[in-house]
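[Automated response] Your request has been received and processed.

Submitted sequence:
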Amino acid sequence: MHIIKSRHDLVTHLLSIRKQGKNVTIGFVPTMGALHSGHASLIDESVSENTITVCSIFVNPTQFGDKSDLEKYPKPIEKDIEILIKHKCDILFLPEFEEVYSAQYVHQKFEIGELESKIEGASRPGHFQGVCNVVSQLFEIVTPDCAYFGQKDYQQTAIIKSLIKLTGSNITLKIVPIKRESNGLAMSSRNIRLSDKGRKNAAFIYKALRDIQAEVETRSLVELVNRAKQFISSQKGVDLDYLLAVDAETLNEVTSIKETGSIIILVAVTYEGVRLIDNIFLN
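Generated structure:
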């Protein structure tokens, strides 16, 4: 695996690869590091579908509203490199801040509509503009054919879809299903900040989602959502941010499974001081 830190070197290297043949495809997995099996599944998907797979590790400060959250974000780079090699990633792009945001870069305001201010965006103002700025920069550097994102950050995938359309890009967005720990907790780089007991107990999040899914055909969606909120809120040390049933395309809230063809439940909680998000499709 090549480890490239320079924007110029990566662009030059990928250009030389593309010249090797017209059927060469580049898959791209943008990450902030602290890799786990969920990230590995993105790498595996890209490796299986493309000639070359590029993974970036860049902890983007512009998508952290809380400075302390940025400071606490884990950065186990040696372990990350081991995982990438094991999963046959071809190139790790490991830039410093200046390689992504040059001194001349002016942060853009992307017109992504109400998607950026609802649900996760309401709780983290400016977060999705930060995501759009860094992803647009990384897309410009890597110029991938396919980009791989995880379903866990579902609203983010909707934002990236809008970004690709907005910029007129030909990149194909691939959304890879959530990978879970043995107790059902959605894999996240933040999970390592939980205590061993907390990591085990955090299974209550997925249980609440599964309970809705299991009974949605026989009980009111509103009733099931309210019951799930009560269940999560009853857990010791939990702060429930939101639990919503939304249309999977528009992310508008729905109250009945008859309202749309595809519904997803989105949830965010803070537990042991760690923000955890998850989701599940109902139909």
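Summary generated for your ticket: The domain at 189-277 is CATH 3.30.1300.10 (Pantoate--beta-alanine Ligase; Chain: A,domain 2). The chain has a mean pLDDT of 95.
If you did not submit this request, please reply to this message.
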